[in-house]
Write a structure and sequence with these properties.
Layout (H helix, E strand, L loop, with lengths): L13 H5 L7 H4 L17 E6 L2 E2 L3 E2 L5 H13 L2 E6 L6 H4 L8 E6 L6 E2 L4 E9 L21 E4 L4 H7 L6 E4 L10 H11 L4 E5 H10 L5 E4 L10 E8 L4 H13 L1 H10 L16
Parallel strand pairs: 1-4, 1-5, 8-9, 8-10
Antiparallel strand pairs: 2-3, 5-12, 6-12, 7-10, 7-11, 7-12
Helix pairs in contact: 3-9
Length: 289
């Protein structure tokens, strides 16, 4: 899976004083405060400073190929800024060494409810998913309760919620475990799992939805990806994803919330273009922005 942000200072809004002015800057006319409104929160006025992993597709990489890279570029364009990255692998200490150290101002993707960061409003919702080679006996599978899994070799990332569901279904003896926290600059649990799928070492893998979708369509031959939407919600396999900011940056959070709301269709289009299995709040698939 992935997910993963801390502290700063609060501010009073000049935007409130400007409401109704016919000569507001373009950003303010779009419901966004001028950069001066954020000056007391230590938000960089010229750059959108993004905390990101340097080698963690489909989310981000230093070549700008991830969907979080594209969302960052979209936000920067709307803010009239340029993107500036602080790169750090998403391992223990990621938040402390990036957002918490004031080296950057936003983590583009972070699960809602994690108290390490202050969350914006969610901008997408997705789930864990099954991934497997089609035509080898698992086509049509939709749930971990499917009896075909009783004889299958199953890959799962250690310490992630699907593991509890595998225990519930009595499937733990068939599990091959992959490490949760790795330095993505040199290793990838998802890539290792997919290589084992292709080699036949395992029959099916369980990955965080965006990663499952990425590998399903970028390997040859393509794999089949099926979101897990029928499992009990304890522990959850479906999550809202937000942006993460420091706890003290209240106005910056509000600015990002307005930005998300005004550009949700464009954000959805980026996510869908990368194959992310988007869900609405009723957990129904979203197929068009």
């Amino acid at each position: 899976m992935r997910p993963v942000t801390m502290h700063g200072l609060a501010a009073a809004l000049l935007a409130v004083l400007l409401l109704g002015s016919p000569t507001l800057p373009a950003a303010a006319q779009d419901g966004l405060p001028d950069s001066a409104d954020l000056s007391l929160e230590l938000i960089d006025p010229e750059f959108l400073r993004v905390c990101a992993d340097p080698n963690n597709l489909p989310f981000s990489n230093q070549q700008g190929e991830g969907f979080e890279n594209e969302i960052a570029e979209l936000l920067a364009e709307k803010l009239g800024k340029q993107v500036d990255y602080t790169w750090f692998p998403q391992v223990t200490g990621f938040v402390r060494n990036t957002l918490g150290a004031h080296k950057c101002d936003v983590i583009i993707g972070y699960p809602q409810g994690d108290e390490i960061v202050q969350n914006t409003n969610p901008y997408y919702r997705t789930s864990y998913a099954l991934v497997f080679v089609p035509g080898k006996g698992l086509d049509g599978i939709e749930s971990l309760a499917d009896p075909r899994l009783a004889e299958a070799k199953i890959g799962v990332v250690a310490g992630t919620p699907p593991g509890d569901h595998l225990v519930r279904h009595g499937l733990i003896d068939q599990v091959r475990s992959y490490p949760l926290l790795v330095d993505t600059r040199v290793d990838s649990a998802a890539r290792s799992m997919v290589q084992d799928l292709q080699a036949g070492t395992i029959d099916v893998g369980i990955l965080w939805g965006p990663m499952a979708a990425h590998y399903a369509r970028t390997v040859d031959p393509e794999l089949r990806m099926v979101p897990l939407l029928q499992e009990p919600d304890r522990p959850r396999l479906i999550y809202n994803i937000t942006m993460g900011v420091r706890a003290s940056d209240q106005e910056w959070k509000r600015a990002l919330n307005r930005l998300i709301r005004a550009n949700q269709k464009e954000i959805d289009a980026i996510l869908l273009d990368h194959g992310v299995p988007l869900l609405d709040q009723r957990n129904r698939p979203i197929t068009a922005p």
